């Protein structure tokens, strides 16, 4: 059995490379120039015969630096990215709300770039779904929208789809954490809209110091249990969803 991970930070994660034959394709996201360069080196080692690593760069809502916009623009111009992200809004802490205008500026700039270069977007959203719903008309113009670590309700997911967005909802480690909304989404979302992720090394559960690449196996096992489906059938569907979301050709039989 093999697994896919649509959101992992390979520059900071050890432990994916020994599993590269089991966990692929993955989408590796970077949010600093240094991490991007490290991640690009990894892709060049692993994308020789087939695409095992998709590459994504985006200005994270909590790390808004002007020079990164030029950097992102350059990468897109040179066609070095498979996706833009993670981008979005983070209003988890009170102090993040004070920064709302800056977050919105970077979101708008990056959304426009993704539309222009026809790239899928990976969305980071904490306590900010109402804000995202004000952008559904623009998000409709993207080839695909991947909601990383989806933690909205089933109704909210459905309404994104009804608004005509080619949305994929990625289930991460919160499904292992008793999070009711995530559990419901993992159990009930249409299978063709599901993706899986770790966000490694982040998204640790209680008593963990880091998330490892291998944790995607636990996530898939749990989703299969919740859906009363065979795990291999599930990982297979998720694989094809990944290929559609990132516009890569599937090679698994
Ligand atoms: Zn992340």
Written account of the structure:
By secondary structure, this protein is an alpha/beta fold. The chain has one domain: Metal-dependent hydrolases (TIM Barrel, Alpha-Beta Barrel). The protein has ten helices and eight strands. The mean pLDDT is 95. Zinc ion (ZN) binds next to loops.
Structure described in brief:
This protein has 253 residues and is α/β, with parallel strands linked by helices.
What is this structure's SSE topology?
Elements: E1 3-8, E2 23-30, H1 33-46, E3 53-57, H2 67-77, E4 83-90, H3 94-97, H4 100-116, E5 121-126, H5 129-133, H6 136-139, E6 145-147, H7 154-162, E7 167-171, H8 180-188, E8 194-196, H9 215-226, H10 231-245
Parallel strand pairs: 1-2, 2-3, 3-4, 4-5, 5-6, 6-7, 7-8
Helix pairs in contact: 2-4
The site of zinc ion has 6 residues, from loops.
